[in-house]
Each structure stands twice: as structure tokens, then as C-alpha cells.
Amino acid sequence: MADTARTLSEETRSRIEAAAFRRLLAHLNQTRPDVQNIDLMILAGFCRNCLADWYRDAASAEGAPLDKEAAREAVYGMPFAQWKAAHQKEATPEQLAAFAAAQEKHADS
After folding, report:
1. What CATH number does the domain containing 58 carry?
2. Tens of pLDDT along 44-79?
3. How many angstroms separate the CA atoms of 26 and 74, rounded?
């Protein structure tokens, strides 16, 4: 099976990656909007905002620059302020401590 992945055309690979990215966004934004960005950062080292930054970087590399808000809207599926009001909770002291510990761990590696 791994051999098949290596023989895909660039166009097919790009379509597959785009579909997987769209599915990830749908999962994060529709299926699991309860998962807070800080928790994603603690566990995975990235969050929805990171995805938006990567999306913006990729757009710029393709000659289609986006501003921060446009990239976030592409990732969140709505304006970020609207998402934040609907889904984002204030970080707890425990989350902030875990985030700080995760940042220290990543700085040491």
C-alpha cells in the first residue's frame, strides 16, 4: 500500500491532501468545536490558529496572499470573532499551567 502512495501523481496527491485537510477542518469545527485551541496546543503543539497561519503561508507561496482574518475565516468557516463568541471559553488556570509546561518541554527539545 505504501508503494501506491509514492506513485500518485502530484495532482492526485494534492487533491487527496486537500480533501484530508477539509475533513480535519470539518472535524475540528463541526464535530468537535468543544475542543479548545489551548487544549490542542497542549496536546498537539498546534491549533486552529496555527492552521490558519499555515493556510496563509501556503496562499502567499501560491501568489494569493491573504490577511490574518481571511485565513482564519477560511479555517474556522466563519469570522474568527463569531467563532470565539460561540465556542471559545476562558482558559482555566490548569490549562494555562499545562500550556506553559508544554512550551517549556518543546523549548528543551
Report:
1. 1.10.3340.10
2. 999 999 999 999 999 999 999 999 999 999 999 999
3. 11
